[in-house]
Amino acid sequence: MAVSSGPVTGSLRRDDGLLRRIVTHRADYAYVLPALVVMMVVIAYPIWFTVDMSFYKTPASLQLRDRTFVGWKNYHTILTAPAFWSVTLNTLIWTVASTFFAFLLGLGAALSLHREFAGRAVLRAILLIPYVISAVAASYLWKWLYHSDFGVIGALSVQWGFTDKPINFLDNIHTALPSLIVVNIWREFSFAMIMLMAGLQTVPEQLLRAAQVDGANAWQRFWHVTAPHLKGVSMVTVLLLMVANFNSFIVPWLMTGGGPAGASDIWITHIYQIAFGRQNWGLASAYSVILFIVMMCLGYFYVQALTRGDKGRPE
Amino acid sequence: MAKVTLENVVKTYGPVTAVGDVSFTVQDGEFVALVGPSGCGKTTTLNLIAGLIPISGGNIRIGDKLVNDLDPKDRDIAMVFQNYALYPNKTVAKNLAFPLQMRRLPKDEIARKVAEAARVLDITHLLERKPRELSGGQQQRVALGRALVRDPRAFLMDEPLSNLDAKLRVQMRTELKRFHQDLKATIIYVTHDQLEAVTMADKMAVMNGGTLQQYDSPKNVFDHPVNTFVASFVGSPAMSLVPLRRVVEGDAVALAGDGWQMPLSPANARKALSAKSDTVILGARHSTIALHDGPREGAVPGRVYTVEPTGDVTFVQVHVDGAIVIASLAPDVAVRSDTNVWLGFDQSRMHLFDCETQMALT
Predict the structure, then answer these.
(1) In this structure, are residues B65 and B39 in contact, taking their beta carbons and an 8 Å threshold?
(2) β-sheet with B203-208: strand ranges across
(3) What contacts A128, CB < 8 A, 6 or more positions away?
(4) Which residues are B320's β-sheet partners?
(5) Cβ-defined contact of B82 to A206 (cutoff 8 Å)
(6) Which residue from A21, A120, B129, B239 has the highest number of Cβ atoms inside 10 Å of its Cβ?
């Protein structure tokens, strides 16, 4: 019951044309065709549409037939605007700091929860709350915590004598971005925790025992056995966090909207303002294309890490 | 190397007793096999000696030192694990060096010891490889090397050969025995394979249900099992055990089955009389049972159940009084299933067990 018809496959050589191969395996291609069509419509077409629009000056209305071709001008405008570099710097700080500390905190939580103790299940459930809570709710919650007049944090810092008056966390160009990063870390560390907890469960007990007999103390056992074992899952976690952070929108948009004076503006919030605030669709598209390229690079490393993780796994 | 002493060692998990009151001494340079079925407590016992789990009672000494509360690293023992437990991210050389690094030995001494261990185990050409690039036998050798480099006071081995294929297992068995002879090492070796124990060990500790059943040389365990468990666990095929009725008429004692009697020799009669009840279990290894095709004086009637030729010897399973007795025959003797045969038991080599206590009658 051969599925693919046509000439005998044995006569096919590697350098046979693509079309010829498709014809030979037409049944196989027919099976994946519906999926291909769906992906074309929902992924490839929007990408192409965005790339295309990035070369046009568009009217503020959505009357796209009134657009005019401007070539690379949008890209030129972006790369020469001072805002681009400050937004890029903000995005880098935001992404790297959030990822780094969320991972570190997640690792600490995973390691502490890995050992048996009373109340472990309850604590684990509590630590998962930041991850499962809605980003909108979390943003408003933290907005209240940070509030200069009614916020708990400001009140405590005055009461404990750290400051004379409550700090205006979100309305200060020096504290706005760090304050948002704290919220983001709080939201994301549970994700890192879940991933690393799963990883920890696959560390072979015998290896840890062998290291114990070999004379390794707890820290050396972690460094020589556990850490190498977590390498694959750590890479994946860090990359997933980086992609998520590059694409962050809800928290910065709801808490500061990129302000004050662009101090917490990152790429996505910036693009959103250009597109839906200034209605400059062409420029926003060009911005999106640049972001898309960066994300594809991260995606490449992600796939690399995934496949390397598979190859590196013992037994 | 040092001797290892267990005195009334107990390990309990809540209400469950994993190891109950185990005592034995492994002399300096002795190879002791801990054997028993799954869950008998043999691996737990090994982990107790290693210090990987704390004991609930009793004492463990390595040399003359009480080690009850010492960490594994301070007990100066080396361990070889079933899955080899090699560090997957380290090369063979670094795996071998690891226990020495942890003990902060100077670099040149580490290099010298690693090279020496690699030479002894013939793995010098593998030193730069990662464990996953090695075959099972090679990994096993590296695991042995990692135990060897440290010059420990005792080796603890947890089923080190059970992941190898049958052929390699036999080969590694020979090498391990040689390794023991050359190093005069104290080795405590856990296995569920009684053949490994019999072939390699100086002494066997047979365990069941968390308690030590018998601790003796393989020959004595084989020839003089203390109870029915040891009798049926050691030896392949297992010793046949048949519960029979004790019949006493004056001075004569016999064992009786359904419609037959087997008179016992004076020595066996004395043993049978010491049994607590009238049921005595007769135990016999296949090599001590003669098979006849007609009735004989003192022979026991049975019916052939299956015939299993193995090449040099043919095993015959015979139904005797509801139990199965395994006898052996030369391969050129033909026997057919469902024929009547008569079994002649060698009175000087048969075993009698008390049916109530399951202990050997002496």
Answers:
(1) no
(2) B77-80, B154-158, B187-191, B31-35, B203-208, B211-216
(3) A190, A193, A194
(4) B323
(5) yes
(6) B239
- At the second CATH level, the architecture of A82-312 is Orthogonal Bundle (1.10)
Query: CB distance from B88 to chain A under 8 Å?
Result: yes
A6 pLDDT band, cuts 50/70/90, is very low
Domain spans, chain A: 82-312
In this complex, the residue of A210, A215, A220 whose CB is nearest that of residue B85 is A210
pLDDT in tens, A179-235: 899 999 999 999 999 999 999 999 988 899 999 998 888 899 999 999 999 988 998
- In this prediction, residue B187 carries a pLDDT of 93
pLDDT tens by residue, A116-167: 888 888 988 888 888 888 889 988 988 888 887 777 887 788 888 777 777 7
Over chain A, what HEC string results? CCCCCCCCHHHCCCCCCHHHHHHHCHHHHHHHHHHHHHHHHHHHHHHHHHHHHCCEECCCCCCHHHCEECCCHHHHHHHHCHHHHHHHHHHHHHHHHHHHHHHHHHHHHHHHHHCCCCCHHHHHHHHHHHHHCCHHHHHHHHHHHHCCCCCHHHHHHHHCCCCCCCCCHHHCCCCHHHHHHHHHHHHHHHHHHHHHHHHHHCCCHHHHHHHHHCCCCHHHHHHHHHHHHHHHHHHHHHHHHHHHHHCCCHHHHHHCCCCCCCCCCCHHHHHHHHHHHCCCHHHHHHHHHHHHHHHHHHHHHHHHHHHHHHHHCCC
Give yes or no for residue A243 having a pLDDT over 60: yes
Q: Which residue of A has its CA nearest to B73?
A: A215
pLDDT for res A312: 45
Domains and CATH numbers, chain B: 4-233 (3.40.50.300), 240-354 (2.40.50.140)
- Asked if the model's pLDDT at residue B294 lies above 90, the reply is no
How many beta-carbon pairs under 8 angstroms link A with B? Answer: 65
- How much is the pLDDT for A309? 52
